[in-house]
Amino acid sequence: MAGSAANLEDIHSVDLMTELLRRMKCSTKPDKRLILVGPPGSGKGTQSPIIKEEYCLCHLATGDMLRAAVAAKTPLGIKAKEAMDKGQLVSDDLVVGIIDEAMKKPSCQKGFILDGFPRTVVQAEKLDEMLKKQGTKIDKVLNFAINDSLLEERITGRWVHPSSGRTYHTKYEPPRVPGVDDVTGEPLIQRKDDTAEVLKSRLEAFHRQTEPVIDYYVKKGIVALIPAEKPPKEVTTEVQKVLSS
Ligand code: ADP
Ligand code: AMP
Predict the structure, then answer these.
(1) Which atom number of ligand 2 is nearest to the Cα of residue 62?
(2) Is 119 a catalytic residue?
(3) Distance (Å, rounded) from C-alpha 121 to C-alpha 5?
(4) Span 155-165, pLDDT tens digits
(5) Cis peptide before 212, with omega less than 30 degrees from 0?
(6) pLDDT of residue 4
(7) pLDDT digits (tens, 9 = 90+) for 63-102
(8) How far is ligand 1, taken at its centre, from the CA of residue 37, in Å?
(9) Whose CA is nearest to atom 23 of ligand 2?
(10) Which ligand 1 atom minimizes the distance to the CA of 171?
(11) pLDDT of amino acid 191
């Protein structure tokens, strides 16, 4: 505690005030616990920051967390790297552990957006157990539905700002300066697994292991269909319609 209080003294007043105002505005928002499910490139990461802002939720993307662990060469990252490079899923225990820990963050107080998790029925069951212990449950699952034939162009044209997770596309959402993040001016990167070749395995994993997760939640009556092949702004409108109902 003493450590975090000391750190607060080093934060600029304007940043503290901005955060205070954000928390005041958020205090009136209803809690929401959401899952975004869809194949790689369906637009989950593009829509998440918009939903996060609107409803004061935390955005937990297991892919981003795993990539950070790989880059930092942590024991978790070392275990996950091989499967990720091949476009296969990492083990259920690894991802369940990181989600369990991440959901405890203060930024998740009003709820969360799970992006890329759960990806197997075992993960969905473990998530249910975790939430049951907290006396909560998932409110809605947004199913980003899109034909596979559109995904290669989306994935191979994707550029990412690694530290913020901001996503661009050479054709659909180009940055102001090619290869440069609009906000920070830092370089953008292309993900190692964003190739046509690795996409094939990722899609295979999606259809075989993750589609059953959608059925799992359909049975609970909480799945909403999002037509993810529409342009980004129209997808946002569809998402807002679902979340306000
Ligand atoms: P996911 O998080 O589901 O893997 P992203 O949100 O990163 O997918 O989107 C994949 C790529 O497609 C990105 O380059 C993004 O800019 C672009 N994109 C996202 N949504 C759309 C859309 N509705 N129409 C066209 N391109 C999109
Ligand atoms: P993503 O950023 O969601 O496309 O995920 C990138 C890679 O991280 C996937 O291809 C998997 O190897 C791994 N990964 C991310 N989330 C999960 C998960 N919930 N379960 C298993 N593997 C995951």
Answers:
(1) 16
(2) yes
(3) 41
(4) 999 999 988 88
(5) no
(6) 54
(7) 999 999 999 999 999 999 999 999 999 999 999 999 999 9
(8) 13
(9) 89
(10) 26
(11) 95
Residue 81 falls in the annotated catalytic set: no
What is the residue whose two structure tokens read 């409108």?
237
Query: Domain segments of the chain: what residues?
Result: 32-146+225-244
Q: Which of 81, 126, 158, 166 is catalytic?
A: 158
Burial of 110-144, coded b for 16+ CB within 10 Å and e otherwise, reads bbbbbbbbbbbeebbebbeeeeeeeeeebebbbbb
- Based on the residue annotation, tell me whether 191 is a catalytic residue of this protein: yes
- The CATH architecture one would assign to domain 32-146+225-244 is 3-Layer(aba) Sandwich (3.40)
Residues in contact with ligand 1 (CB, 6 Å cut-off): 38, 40-46, 154, 157-158, 167-169, 172-173, 230-232, 235
User: If you measure from the C-alpha of residue 116 to the centroid of ligand 2, how many angstroms do you get, rounded to a whole number?
Assistant: 6
Ligand 1 atom at minimal distance to the Cα of residue 157:
14
- pLDDT tens track for 96-141: 999 999 999 989 999 999 999 999 999 999 999 999 999 999 999 9
| Cβ atoms of 170 and 190 closer than 8 Å | no
With cut-offs at 50, 70 and 90, classify the pLDDT of residue 6. Answer: low
Element of type H or E holding 223: strand 223-227
